[in-house]
Amino acid sequence: MALKSKKFRWERKGLLGLRELSAEEITYILDTAEGFEQISSRTVKKAPALRGKTVVNLFFEDSTRTRNSFALAASRLSADVVEFTKKSSSVSKGETLLDTARNLEAMGIDIVVIRHSAGGAAKLLSRNINACVVNAGDGFCEHPTQGLLDVYTIRKLRGSLDGLKIAIVGDIVHSRVARSDMWAMTKLGAEVTFVGPATLMPGQVEQLPVKVSYSLDEVIEKVDVINMLRIQFERLGGNPFPSVREYSHYFGLTVERMKRAKEDILVMHPGPINRGLEMESEVADGKNSVILEQVTNGVAVRMAVLFLVNQAAAQKK
Amino acid sequence: MALKSKKFRWERKGLLGLRELSAEEITYILDTAEGFEQISSRTVKKAPALRGKTVVNLFFEDSTRTRNSFALAASRLSADVVEFTKKSSSVSKGETLLDTARNLEAMGIDIVVIRHSAGGAAKLLSRNINACVVNAGDGFCEHPTQGLLDVYTIRKLRGSLDGLKIAIVGDIVHSRVARSDMWAMTKLGAEVTFVGPATLMPGQVEQLPVKVSYSLDEVIEKVDVINMLRIQFERLGGNPFPSVREYSHYFGLTVERMKRAKEDILVMHPGPINRGLEMESEVADGKNSVILEQVTNGVAVRMAVLFLVNQAAAQKK
Amino acid sequence: MALKSKKFRWERKGLLGLRELSAEEITYILDTAEGFEQISSRTVKKAPALRGKTVVNLFFEDSTRTRNSFALAASRLSADVVEFTKKSSSVSKGETLLDTARNLEAMGIDIVVIRHSAGGAAKLLSRNINACVVNAGDGFCEHPTQGLLDVYTIRKLRGSLDGLKIAIVGDIVHSRVARSDMWAMTKLGAEVTFVGPATLMPGQVEQLPVKVSYSLDEVIEKVDVINMLRIQFERLGGNPFPSVREYSHYFGLTVERMKRAKEDILVMHPGPINRGLEMESEVADGKNSVILEQVTNGVAVRMAVLFLVNQAAAQKK
C-alpha cells in the first residue's frame, strides 16, 4: 500500500466527504498522517509546512474536540489560525454563509474548515470560493476527518481493515460520523453493520453498503471493532426510544455485554461520551477502549488533510 | 506622490480618526499599504515587522470583518494577537474601560485596537495609556481604517481621487464610515455627496465639506464612485423610513438604477450587505462591484497602520 | 537567596497551590521570574523556551486578567495557546471535566491552565492526566500565581518580605487570593493580618497562620503592605454586610484613612477594582499604589511557572 501510494498524487484542494474518495485516496491520506503523527510526539511539535498560510475555523455549531483538533493541527504546521464562531460574527447581522466565506477569502484565508448544521454547506462553499474547503461536519451528511481518524486508528492497531467486521451502534440516522465511517471502512475492505433501534435507522438503509441489525446482542460476539455513537439529545425530536434506561439496556455497551465480545475487540466512540448511556465508564476507560487514541490520531489526520489540500491548491496555481 | 511621501515622516503613535490627518499623512499610509499588499499575495504571507509585539483586539461591539482583518494584519506582521471580547471579560464584572486598558498595557501590550459604542472611546484611551491606540470604530464618529481602505481601493483603481465625484448613500447619521470616508475623500480632492432620506441625514450637515442630496436618482448619473452604506437595523430607533420596501425603492442600488450610472462606476459597500435592501445581489456581485477588493485592501491598510504607529512609538522611546 | 536557589532544582510538573510549596521553592520561582521580567520589557518580547509546546487556557469562570496574562506569558515563551471557554465547549454537551482534560491531553497539550469554581479541580486534573497542570484559581481554595505575583511585587520593591507586616482586607472567606497570599507571605517571613467583618472571615481562622482584626482603623497605621480584596458581588450570598456604604465606611481604603498609614505603604489589589468601594480612586491611582506593577509582574511570574513545570516534566520523561 505504501508503494502504491508513492506513485499516487493527491489532486483535491478540498475535502468534502469520503463518499467521493477512492480507496487509494483514503490510503494516501492515512499514509501522510503517519508521517505527521511523529511530529505530534516530538518535543518540539512544529513543522513549517503551512508557514504564512491562514486557516479559518468557521464553526456554526458547538464543538470542542474537532475545533481544537483542527486548530492544533494547523498550528503544528505553523499556520496562522483564525477562530470564527457564530456568536461573535456578522452572521448575527444576517450575513449569508457565502458572503462570510467570500469575505474571509478576500482577506487572504487559504483554508476554510467549516462545520454547519446544513448538509452540503461545505460543498456550497467549495463551489463558490477558491480557498481550500475542509468539511468538519455538515448536517447529517458527512464528517470526513472523523471517518479518516477512525480508519487510521483501526489500521494502526490491526494493520489493515480488509475483512474486519465492524459494528456502528446507536443513532445512525442523525450521525454524520456513521456515514463517513461507512464510506471509509467499506472502501478499505471492512464489513460494516449498522446497529440500532428501527426508529434511529436511515430511511433507505438497504441501499447503503452495510448490513443492518436491530439487536446489539446478536452482533456483539462477531465484530472486531465496535463504534458506539453518541446519543445527541440536542438533535433528537419526537420519542425515538421509550427511555434512556431502555435504550441503554438494549444498545448500551455494558461490562456484562463486553464479556461476550471478542477479547481483542476495539471499542471506539467519537466523543463526547454520555457515560452510562452509550457505554459504561468501565468500558470507556477499559483495556479495549481506543477512544483517546482516536483523539490523538485526529490531530495527525487533520494535519495530513490540511497539508494535502494546500499542496494541491499550490500545484493548481 | 511616492517621491513626496519619501521625505515625509509619520509621527503619530495612534490612529484615532481621519479628520485630524493631513492629505500627506493619508497618502503616506496608502503608500505604505501598497508595500504590504504584496505580502498578502505571497505564498508565505509573513513579514517580521512586529515580531515580539502584542496587539490586542479590544472589541466592545460585534464585528467579523474588522476584527478578523486586524487580527490577520497583525499576524502577517508576526505580532502576537490577544482577542478581547466583551462577554469573556472583566467588563461583565463592572470594570471601567480605562482600567481594562491600563491592565492590558501593564501586561506589555504594544497596540490596542479598540471598537466601542461610545464616540471618543479611542481618544479617551490614547490620552490615558502609553500603548499605541488604533480606532476600529467609535460610536457614530469615525472608523478610520475603513475610510483608508476605501480611498486606497479607489486610488488603486483610478490612480487618484482628485476631481472624482463620490456619492455616499443611506443611513448617514448613524454611519462612522460616512464620516471617515468624507474626511479621507475630500482631503484627497474628491467631491463627496451624502445621499439619503432627510431622516437619516446628520443635524448640521451643511457645515460638513459635502454636498447633500435627498434623491439617489438625481445623483446616480453623475458619480464616479458610489458607496452604499449598510442599513444597521440594530441602531435604528423610531421609524426613519416607512418600510424596507420603500427605502429600497428610493435608495437601493438596483439593476435598473445601475443602467443610468457611468459605465465604469465603482460600487462600494462596507459590508456586511443586506442583499436586496441596499443593493440587489446582481449589483453586489456585478462587474462594477469592488466590495471584495475593499476587504482585501483592508488587510494591507491595517498592516500599514499597525506598522506605522508601532514605528512612531519606537522612535519616541 | 540567589546563591541558595542556584543549588536548588525545581521538581514539580504542576502548580496546584502555595500551601504545599517550601519557602525555597517559592523563592526559586521568584528568581526565575526576575529573568523573564526582562524579556517583557524588551523590544522583541520573545523567548524560545516553549516553542512547539501547546498551552491550553481551560477557564470555567470569567476572567480577563488571569486568562490574558497566562496567554501572553505562554506566547512570549513561543508556545501555541488554545483558548477553551465554557460556552464554546463540549461542556455544554455534558462532558465531564476529566473527559475534557483527557481529550485535550490526547491531542498533545503540554500544559493545562485551569480555572474552575470547584475547589480541588486542578488537583483532580493533575492526578488524572500526565500533562502539566497549573491552577489559575479553584473555588475558594487557591490562586497560586496571584500569590506569587504579590510576593514578587513586594520583594522587588522592599528587597525581602522578612519581618514585613501585611494586611489583607475584605471578603476573606470567599477569597482564594487571600489564601494563596497567606501561604506565600508567611513562608517568606511576613506577618499577615486578615482584616474584615466577622461575617466575611473564614470559619476556623484561628487555625491559620495569621492574625485577625475586625477593624481596619486599628491596623492601618502598623502595616507595610495592604492588599485590598475585591468585593465579589457575584459570590456573596445572604447579607454579609448591611450596605455597600457601610462596608466602604469601615473597610474601604479612603484618602482619609491613608493619611494614617505609613508613608511608604504598598497598596495592592488583585483587580478588577470596584472604585469607591474597596478603595477610592485617588488611592487606586495614587503614589503608594502598586496595582499595575502587580499586573506587569504577573506575566513574568506566569512565564516562570510555565517554564519550570515544563522543564520538570521534560526531566521526568
Oligomer: homotrimer
| CATH-defined architecture of the largest domain in chain A | 3-Layer(aba) Sandwich
Distance between the termini of chain A: 30 Å
Large-scale geometry of chain A: globular
Domain count of chain A, please report it.
Answer: 2
Unreliable stretches of chain A (pLDDT < 50, length at least 5) are none
What structural category do the secondary elements of chain A indicate?
Answer: alpha/beta
What is the mean predicted local confidence, pLDDT of chain A?
92
CATH class of the largest domain in chain A: Alpha Beta
Order of helical and strand elements of chain A:
HEHEHEHEHEHEHEEHEHHEHH
Q: What Rg of chain A do the Cα atoms give?
A: 19 Å
Strand order of the largest sheet of chain A: 1-5-4-2-3
CATH superfamily of the largest domain in chain A: Aspartate/ornithine carbamoyltransferase
In the CATH hierarchy, the third-tier topology of the largest domain in chain A is known as Rossmann fold
Number of helices of chain A: 12
Q: Biggest protein-protein interface?
A: A-C, 32 and 29 residues
Q: What percentage of residues of chain A falls in helices of 4 or more residues?
A: 40-55%
What is the strand content of chain A?
A: 5-15%
Number of strands of chain A: 10
